[in-house]
Amino acid sequence: MNIWKQKNRLEKIDLLLRQKNTGSSFEFADKIGISRTTLMDIIAELRSLGFPIIYDYYRKSYIYKSEGHLVFGFTSTKIDTNEMNKIKGGAINISFEETYW
Q1: Phi, psi for residue 55 in degrees, rounded to 5
Q2: Confidence class for position 24, pLDDT limits 50, 70, 90
Q3: What is the distance between the alpha carbons of residues 95 and 78, in angstroms, rounded to a whole number?
């Protein structure tokens, strides 16, 4: 499957979980346009990655047990000068000025 389709599918799953509006597993799968089996496989995989997904029998919806959301993105590993100094333990810059008497 195309990576963008997977991303969009996971974002839709995340949105429905945060809205606490999935309905039963059959309704949830229907809202996403996949089979119930595929949905349950995705939920199992997300749970194995640490997503706190539970079924709330009162709401009749899958939800996140704790607040949070799925994040996609790229984080630069470029380190600024201040951070670099912390890593190196600091740096000493010595400059000499010529003094004329």
Answers
A1: -100, 125
A2: very high
A3: 27
Closest by alpha carbon to 90, among 79, 98, 81, 78?
81
Q: Report the C-alpha dihedral over residues 68, 43, 47, 15, rounded to 10 degrees.
A: 0
Is the model's pLDDT at 93 over the cut of 70?
no
Q: What's the pLDDT at 1?
A: 64
Domain boundaries of the chain, sorted by first residue: 1-89
| pLDDT reading at 101 higher than 60 | no
Dihedral angle of Cα 21, 27, 33, 36, to the nearest 10 degrees = 120
- CA pair distance 23, 77, nearest whole angstrom: 40
pLDDT averaged over the chain?
84
11/38 Cα distance (integer angstroms): 16
Is 1.10.10.10 the CATH number for 1-89?
A: yes
Mean pLDDT of 38-43: 97
